[in-house]
Write a structure and sequence with these properties.
The chain is of the alpha/beta class. The chain is built from nine helices and seven strands; from the N terminus they run βαβαβαβαβααβαααβ. This is 3-oxoacyl-[acyl-carrier-protein] reductase.
Length: 253
């Protein structure tokens, strides 16, 4: 393992890789030597442009975009099977796809609740399920699930999201115990406020208030999260499992 290529030869599957944190993970994993298949949902054009750019930058490495609807078990299964078919070997799963539908609980309709739970939490089942046995049989690999500070602390206006992201942490800790003996690590990464399309939707006055809760008074970058994800994906983190690690600049909520 070259020092600067800690993911050399590793095959990675990343959901929600077309934008934001997922795209930063795809970018960094390739730069660290991995082959990557990533999912997109609504924005095929953006996903293809990213794959073209990264394939040109890293000749000889796979960078493949595939359609994925992680809220649906059938679609997720088709994505997983197709993703495996594009990789010589499979070592790392990053469950990153997610959505917010922020509103006070008193105003929340059932559709908002179900969409948030399906995309952020059901996806832990739909995507991980078909990809688990290949890792277990191989007796090695890493699963990294993207949670949120919202799941650790609870954030008003995010009851469904907080519930889903707390569920991601419970899932992570239980699965880590189930498959630890097979050499597969399972960890959660909990970002705070990261500058992506997701947080661009926050109204200016609320964004300023949220920044005042961060010791450095600034949102993090997708790369701040990607560095931890890629570390957890590498052999350097082989003795870290069942953890939920916050990347929030010390956000206090
Ligand atoms: P973005 O909104 O920038 O990107 C979301 C990604 O998820 C896109 O690639 C999108 O695909 C994909 N996606 C959305 N819905 C689905 C679906 N149903 N099936 C498959 N893919 C889907 O979000 P971020 O990069 O900010 O967030 C990434 C993860 O980090 C999420 O899990 C989020 O909850 C979490 N997070 C983000 C924080 C932040 O401050 N930004 C804070 C804490 C956690 P497409 O582009 O094709 O629509």
């Amino acid at each position: 393992m070259a020092d600067d290529l800690p993911l050399a030869g590793r095959g990675c599957i990343v959901t929600g890789g077309s934008r934001g944190i997922g795209a930063a993970v795809v970018r960094l994993a390739l730069a660290q030597g991995a082959d990557v298949v990533f999912g997109y949902h609504s924005d095929e054009k953006r996903a293809r442009a990213l794959a073209e750019e990264l394939s040109a930058a890293h000749p000889g490495r796979a960078c493949v975009p595939l359609y994925a609807q992680v809220a649906d078990a059938g679609e997720a299964g088709r994505f997983a099977t197709a993703a495996l078919g594009h990789l010589d070997r499979f070592d790392v799963l990053v469950n990153n796809a997610g959505v917010t539908r922020d509103t006070l609980f008193a105003r929340m309709g059932p559709q908002q609740w179900h969409e948030v739970i399906a995309t952020n939490l059901d996806s832990m089942y739909t995507v991980t399920k078909p990809l688990l046995m290949p890792l277990v049989k191989q007796r090695g690999g890493a699963i990294i699930n993207i949670s949120s500070s919202s799941g650790l602390h609870g954030i008003p206006g995010q009851t469904a999201y907080s519930a889903a992201k707390a569920g991601v942490i419970g899932f992570t800790k239980a699965l880590a115990k189930e498959i630890g003996a097979r050499g597969v690590t399972v960890n959660a990464v909990a970002p705070g406020l990261i500058a992506t399309d997701m947080t661009a939707a926050i109204p200016q006055d609320k964004a300023e208030f949220l920044k005042s809760l961060i010791p450095g008074h600034a949102f993090g970058s997708p790369e701040d999260v990607a560095h931890l994800v890629c570390f957890l994906a590498s052999d350097r983190a082989r003795y870290i499992t069942g953890q939920a690690i916050e990347v929030s600049g010390g956000l206090v909520v």
